[in-house]
Amino acid sequence: KNGKTSYTFTRAGNKKIVFTVKTEDGQTASDTALVTVTNMAPKVTIGDDIMAKSGRKIKFNGNAEDPDGKIALYEWDFDGDGTVDFSSTENGFAEHEFEKYSRVILTVTDSDGAKASDSLNVIICPDGMETVEKGKYCIDTYEYPNKKGTEPLLNVTYQEARELCAKQGKHLCSSQEWEYACNESDEKNIYPYGKTFIQDNCNTLGNRIVKNKVSVSGAFSHCRSSLGVYDMSGNAAEWIESNEKTPVVRGGSWQNNESDGKCTSKFQLQGGKKYFYVGFRCCK
C-alpha cells in the first residue's frame, strides 16, 4: 500500500538501509540511507565500602542494567590490580576471602560491547592501625613513624607529611578523620581519654612526667582514645589534610595547655615551613 515500515535495531553501529520499489510492469528503483545506531552504556553498582577482618569471606551482589540491551559479562577484580579474578555471564553474584585492605572492582559489558565499572574498598586495617568502623577508615595508632617507643618525626612541612603518608599507601588524615578518632565514644569526649582534663594523662604543658619536650610514642598510657589511638592531645601537634590555603595542625603539642589539647583544638600554620613541635599521622 505504501512505503511506511518500522524496524528495531539490536546492535549498535552504522547500518545501510536499502529501499526498493517495483512497478506493476516489473521495473525497480532503489534508494539508500545510512542509519547510525548508538549504544547506551550500561550502569552498575556494588555498594558502599565494607569493614572486615582478615580471613573473612565476603559475598557481593553487583546490580547492573542496560537501557537498550542486556548485560553479557560480569568481571570481578578483587585486589584492584587490573586482572580479572572471577567472571560470570549470568549475574553479579560473587564471593571472595580477603586477607588485607583491597580495592574491589566490578566491570560489566553489555551485548554491544560497552562497559561500565563500579568499585568499593574492603577495609582491613593493617598492623599498627586502628579501625574506625563508623567512618570506615583506618588510622595510625601512634604519630609517624607510628612506632611505640620511638619519638615522632618533627620538623616536616605539610607537603612532606603528605608525601610520607602516600609512600606507605596512606594519606594524611583529614580534619574529620582525626577528630572522629580522638573523641569517638558514647559520651563524645572533650579529650581523647574523657570529658575532664587530667594533668598527667598526656604530654601537655604542666605534666609531671616529661618536662617541656617531646616524648616517645605511647609513653603516656592514659593518653589514648576509646579506639586505641595514642597521643592525640599534646606531644606533637599534627598536620591535617586541608583544602585551605593555610593548613592547620590538631591536638596541640607538649607546649600547649588543656584548652589547646582538646579534640576540637586546631590552629593555622604556614604549610611551607617546618616547626620543631609539629609532626603528623596517617590514615587509610
Annotation keywords:
elongated, 2 domains, 284 residues, mainly beta, five-stranded mixed beta sheet, 19 strands, four-stranded mixed beta sheet, Immunoglobulin-like
Q: Helix- and strand-based class? A: mainly beta
Average pLDDT rating:
92
> Could you name the CATH homologous superfamily of the largest domain?
paralog of FGE (formylglycine-generating enzyme)
Whole-number total of structural domains? 2
The CATH architecture of the largest domain would be Alpha-Beta Complex
Q: Report the sheet-strand fraction.
A: 25-35%
Tell me, what's the shape? Answer: elongated
Which segments are poorly predicted (pLDDT under 50) over 5 or more consecutive residues? none
Please report the number of helical segments: 2
Secondary-structure element string: EEEEEEEEEEEEEHEHEEEEE
Query: N-to-C terminal Cα separation, in Å?
Result: 71 Å
CATH topology of the largest domain: paralog of FGE (formylglycine-generating enzyme)
- The first-level CATH class of the largest domain is given as Alpha Beta
Radius of gyration: 29 Å
